[in-house]
Specification:
It is built from 9 helices and 13 strands. By secondary structure, the chain is an alpha/beta fold. The strands form 3 sheets. Strands 3-2-4-1-5 form a 5-stranded parallel beta sheet, with helices on both faces. It is elongated, with a radius of gyration of 20 Å.
């Protein structure tokens, strides 16, 4: 059966490609994706046919990939991070179901929650959730409810799409919502341009997070009640110390 591969490329740097992703992209006849993502991979696969569309053309892009696969070509659809986390995998499955003769295979990638967390330390070492602040596809009242529920349950929270020119105040609004249940002193962090040139990060308090210079290339982490700074890293403990005091105090319990 004809196949479209939904390939996660992580932050986009070659070091973040999995071996499986490299194998699939090398074997592809054509690589498709959002313009920015094609720019990230084209130098690594210079002999490949490339197809790209801008933002808001996701359905067109996925239909093209499916129809091209039906013509007998091996198609790889690249997505930043993981193709199944706010990526094209779900849409490809939905559209392919309308054709019936195209198979979708997902190649896992390193999503921003993982790669960004590694830069900060271990901010999602315990229960956490991902929430996108983009209301292009999800109504803001739904996003607001999810933020409030996550904060009340004391999840560590990873925020995608935290701020844009059209949504300049969304992160500040999100912080205010979470501070209904979380302390203003909750440890937070952000990472910009993860794994790319110009990568930078900072650890701040929740009360100051809304004023930080954050954009769409930034992933934001909001801690739980147990999150703290160890050295210069943001850490959310799993809780091992509650059961293994001797490990932290020494075998004699001191």
């Amino acid at each position: 059966m004809n196949t479209v591969y939904a390939v996660g490329i992580g932050p986009g740097g070659r070091a973040f490609f999995t071996d499986e992703a490299v194998h699939v992209l090398q074997a592809a006849d054509v690589i498709a994706g959002y313009t920015v993502y094609i720019d990230l991979v084209k130098d690594y696969f210079p002999d490949k046919e490339m197809f790209s569309t801008p933002m808001m053309k996701e359905i067109e892009r996925c239909r093209w990939a499916i129809e091209t696969a039906r013509e007998g070509k091996n198609v790889a659809m690249v997505c930043s991070g993981d193709a199944g986390v706010y990526g094209m995998a779900g849409l490809l499955f939905e559209l392919a179901d309308q054709y019936g003769d195209v198979n979708i295979e997902v190649v896992a990638g390193v999503t921003a929650a993982n790669s960004g967390a590694a830069v900060l330390g271990a901010p999602i070492g315990h229960d956490f959730c991902l929430i996108s602040l983009s209301d292009l596809l999800t109504p803001w009242d739904v996003i607001e409810k999810r933020l409030r529920c996550a904060a009340e349950a004391d999840f560590a929270v990873c925020l995608y799409n935290p701020k844009s020119k059209k949504r300049a105040d969304y992160l500040e609004k999100a912080c205010n919502i979470m501070m209904e249940f979380k302390s203003p002193d909750t440890i937070c962090g952000w990472v910009r341009n993860i794994g790319r040139e110009g990568q930078e990060y900072k650890i701040v308090k929740l009360s100051d997070l809304g004023d930080e210079p954050i954009d769409m290339f930034t992933t934001v982490f909001v801690g739980s009640k147990t999150t703290r700074v160890i050295g210069e890293r943001m850490v959310t403990p799993r809780g091992y110390e509650k059961h293994e005091d001797h490990y932290f105090r020494g075998n004699d319990g001191r």
